[in-house]
Design goal:
Layout (H helix, E strand, L loop, with lengths): L3 E10 L11 E6 L7 E6 L2 E6 L10 H12 L3 H8 L3 H8 L7 H11 L3 H8 L16 H25 L2 E17 L2 E14 L4
Parallel strand pairs: 1-2
Antiparallel strand pairs: 1-6, 3-4, 5-6
Length: 204
């Protein structure tokens, strides 16, 4: 049995409707809404996430620096991630101060975004203070929908995971995630994959 457990969540961007659940893919409808925590900045046919000023007080000094340079360069997280050599969600987490940047990350971000490396190194030094960027439960509609999925399916996830893996939890540290887009005749679908190592409870 693989030591990793994975969820795949699929969400169709469409009016609210009941959508059948197929295998391990959960397809739940959601109305599209602009995020308060990031704005869609459109230029040259690309949508670029920028920083909402209202959450800056809860973010590290590096966040405005990185987002301003990203906006000036008109770069998506996907484009930056390809140059950095990391997953785009991991790169976005760096921008929000929710992940630690390696020296290599800092050098590459400096080159891609034309930010002095010494400035980035000073702002990204140290251990991230995670979990301070949002209220719980979340107020932002798109983020709340993810919270709602856990509300609706949390115990179902737990029951199925316990049956497959035993008594334990899925790690959020030995962990990776990715966001993908699928399109079919019914519209666009969001596919979010969560992959975490299974951690059995210790006996003592």
């Amino acid at each position: 049995m693989s030591p990793f457990s994975a969820f795949v969540l699929s969400t169709r961007i469409a009016p609210r409707a009941l959508v059948p659940i197929a295998s391990s893919v959960f397809r739940q409808s959601t109305a599209y809404t602009a995020s308060r925590h990031f704005h869609q900045f459109k230029m040259a046919s690309k949508q670029i996430a920028t920083l909402d000023a209202s959450i800056i007080p809860r973010l590290p000094a590096s966040s405005p620096t990185l987002f301003e340079a990203k906006k000036k360069k008109n770069l998506s997280f996907e484009a930056i991630a390809k140059e950095v050599g990391r997953n785009e969600v991991a790169v976005a987490a760096l921008f929000y101060g929710q992940a630690q940047a390696s020296p290599e990350d800092i050098t590459k971000l400096s080159q891609i975004l034309d930010i002095p490396e010494a400035e980035l190194e000073a702002q990204l030094a140290g251990i991230p203070d995670r979990g301070r960027t949002m209220d719980m439960p979340p107020k932002e509609p798109l983020i709340y929908r993810l919270y709602e999925i856990v509300q609706n399916y949390g115990y179902a996830y737990k029951a199925v995971l316990n049956e497959k893996f035993g008594d334990g939890i899925m790690s959020a540290i030995s962990f990776s995630t990715k966001v993908e887009k699928e399109t079919d005749e019914k519209g666009d679908w969001v596919v979010i994959t969560l992959r975490g190592k299974w951690l059995p409870y210790s006996r003592f």
